[in-house]
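Hello again,

I reread your note about wanting to compare the complex against the isolated chains. To keep things tidy I'm splitting this into two emails, and this first one only covers the full assembly. Below are the input lines as submitted, including protein chains and any nucleic acid or small-molecule components. They are followed by the predicted structure of everything together. The single-chain runs will come separately.
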Amino acid sequence: MSTEQLDKPIIEQPAKPSKGSALRGILPSRQEIVLLVLLAGLLGLAYALSPNFLTPTAQIGLSTHVWELALIALPMTLIILTAGIDLSVGSTMALSAVTFGLSYQAHLPIGVCALLTLAVGGLAGALNGFFVAYVRVHPLIATLATLAAYRGIAEGLSLGRPVSGFPDSFTQLGQGTLLGFPIPGLIFLVFLVAIGLCVTRLPLGLWLSAIGYNETAARYSGIAVSKIKFWLYTSSGLMAALAALLFVARRNTAKADVGAGMELGVITAVVLGGTSIFGGRGRLFGTVLGVLLIHETREFVSWQWNRDELNLIVIGMLLILSVLADSLLSPKAR
Amino acid sequence: MLCVSVLTAGCGTKTTSTSGATAGKPVNVYLLPKQKGIAYFTSCDQGAEQAAKELSDVNLVYDGPTDGAPEEAASLIESWTLKGANVICVSPDDPNVLSPAMIKARQQGVHVLTWDADAPPASREFFVDQATSEQIGDALVDTMAKDIAGTAAPTDATGKVAIVTATLTASNQNEWIKYIEDRLKKYPKLQLVAIKPSNDNQNVAFQVTQDLMKTYPDLKGVFGISSVAFPGAAEAIKQAGKSGQVLVTGLSTPNDMKPYVMGGTVKSVILWNTQDLGYLTVYAAEAVATGKLKPGATTFHAGRLGDLKVDGDKILLGNILVFNKDNINHYNF
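Full-complex prediction:
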């Protein structure tokens, strides 16, 4: 497997975007077709066993559980595309949530609290970016370290105490709807379109793939690898902070265990969506499918069987499935 | 144009309303513990299952977060509401997190009860209260008097007693202390000499109890009235070699105190009957859904538990259980 990266032709990739950089393709890739089939199968099963699950009211209501994960999956896709990873997203959420709670307790205006929260999340991401891009620590190690550290800081600052009682004007951000659709979902759509346009209409998408395929070659061909990586991790931290704000607004509580295990769900969704864990190949459409499959599976299992303990088992099985699909379906891996 | 779409969206969100079950229709009852998979709540579930079997019209589902996260519990309440629950019974770990979901469920026509722990009244119709502060205070004092008196009449129990509490501001504990002091008047020869905080720390409870035994060498009894104060006090007495001379009692689950009870340091452990709590909760849920239990009721008949008192919006179980050497091994939670 590890030799895979070396074999890959680098120069041709940008020349044949439809094959090489799946970011640009219009037709679904093989893995995406598999995901669509799985999703159709799941929804078919749901329709047979419990038709109520598929009503628009139920689906819109249940969708409120997934938007934070979906948002964080967007920058995560780009990071994994560069053969990186950010394990610290859940802990960054916790640190951001605690920042918000403490600044609210200090009677700062709610807007200032939110800005501070985003700043702390961005800084946490920037620190990851600094270590990965400039100190050249392996991202798995750098973000594993901050996964522990950020959670620890969050626990230390809050002393484990939750802060609640935020004003309705703020909780509406997480609980409210606009034209019948949850506000966090609309925020996700805006980011999906914006980031999607950035990677398909600008050279950024090709650069990210190039970094993932062969970083050294990308550097020699003039791509500002370090700068791109630094900003990728920073944006991942910012997105985690935004997700933390939405979560705090939705659940009316800010505390140090927010986002526990979030990295597991996010990375599973991205890899399930066909983004190669070795970098170079993947696209946002696949990630959206991955998020959708995880969300619908989780919700349906809970809906049908009422066993909370099945939740982690389902995620674990999907993660294994996604890695298997990655190695079986990827033409390069043969 | 915008107005029209806002209006239609408004209509769209109002379509689901699951009203109380009518005759013949099963009642879907969801029982939510603070944490699934721990012995205390599993034993509550056993009682709940028994009640569901007796009441033929109840479909009981018991589920909750295995990690005890209240956010996860709130998600479950939201899913159950969408799924058409008739009654959701919640033991709220963090009322701030859970009450928005509970209020939303009520707006959709779901009956919501709390059990084991309460949430703000707006978020539920009734609270199934396992034991009032008065019952707990009385049981603590009566048990202590009986243990000190031994074979003599409990009213002849003589000696100095002290309380090791959680913190001096803990509201539950302060309520209990009030009723302990009231009840002690029944036992004129028992003298309450000190109330010490343990700051929710078992080591502090241990030290405080050691200090109490030094200050009052003739101390006869200690009430350890928090989950850490009780074992902390028991450990101090055991290490001082005063097991049996200084008696200690308090509220705890049987498994936590088994070693002290079997070792002779603790004669009695007080708790409510957890199976009865689950049993009563399901009976109350069915009665609320079928209209048998309405606001303003003063009594409520719950199967084998008979007629129970309803105090305002609280259904009182009041079934205090005393664990001792003879029965503690029958309980596993």
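For quick reference: The domain at 25-124+274-316 of chain B is CATH 3.40.50.2300 (Rossmann fold).

B.
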